[in-house]
Amino acid sequence: MPKKKVSKKRPRTEKKPAAEKKVAGIRDRIVELRRVPAGELKAHPQNWRRHPQGQQDAMQGLLAEIGFAGAVLARETGDGLELIDGHLRAELAPDQEIPVLVLDVTEAEAAKLLATFDPVGRMAETDAGALATLMAEIEIDSQALQTMLDGLALEPPTAPFAPDLVPETSTRPVSPEDLERTQERLDANLAEQQNLYAVVCPNCASEFFIDPKADYHRTEG
User: Fold this and answer.
1) How far apart (Å, rounded) are the C-alpha atoms in residues 190 and 198?
2) Of 133, 160, 155, nearest to 209 (Cα)?
3) Cα–Cα distance measured from residue 89 to residue 60, given in angstroms and rounded to the nearest whole number
4) Both 131 and 217 in a single domain?
5) Residue-wise pLDDT tens digits, 73-94
6) Is residue 116 domain-shared with residue 131, that is, in the same domain?
7) In a domain, 221, yes or no
8) What is the average pLDDT across 27-45?
9) What pTM was computed for the model?
10) Which residues, other chains included, contact 71 with Cβ-Cβ below 8 Å and sequence gap of 6+?
11) Are residues 36 and 107 both part of a single domain?
């Protein structure tokens, strides 16, 4: 009888996605995406962010024009889901189901995220030319949202962080007079910024600030 041919099949191996290879060693702490009534989410007891009326109006305008385009962050506790990021969005839509990314973080890790999530994003620097181009291409219906964008265009350029220029920390206790002087400087700087206008050069896209009350005419002499 003729011998049967035995085919030697190689075991199938699944290739890992390229993205997974790039982030090797970085943990994925997201357990799942849920849609949960916002009113059932607990505010974090250590939430340090306060939301003034202007921000509330701008967020409300964005939700009205776009809707929910990003999930809030929360973690499981014995009393239900506790927010880490997204308190304002949850407050503005208490009766609506909103997207929630549930994380498998500890209480200490959640506190670390709460302290750093927003500030890390604010460390990004502004490309004034790119911002001006972007703002020229979008249309905004919400007046509060437009006011926010106008204020963004008036912000002074962000200076890069230079650790070598940071002075040594003083060990002298802070006095009430120190706090008063600091507040006076902050008030003066804010008043000065409110009186300035941002101008973007159409040729080089550089941004600079002018005082509309100042006389910039060059005199001969």
Assistant:
1) 15
2) 155
3) 8
4) yes
5) 999 999 999 999 999 999 999 9
6) no
7) yes
8) 97
9) 0.60
10) 33, 86, 98, 99, 100, 101
11) yes
State both tokens at 158.
Answer: 């962000």
Structural domain includes residue 170: no
Q: How far is Cα 175 from Cα 179, in angstroms, rounded to an integer? A: 7
- Same domain? For 85 and 134 the reply is no
Q: Decide: 198 and 206 in contact? Cβ < 8 Å.
A: no
Instruction: Identify whether residues 81 and 137 lie together within a single domain.
Output: no
Residue matched to tokens 């702490």: 29
Backbone φ and ψ for 37, nearest 5 degrees, come out as -55, 125
Least confident of 49-58, 100-109, 204-213: 204-213
Q: Which two tokens stand for residue 128?
A: 């004034």
Tokens of 19: 């993205």
**Mean per-residue pLDDT over the chain, rounded:** 78
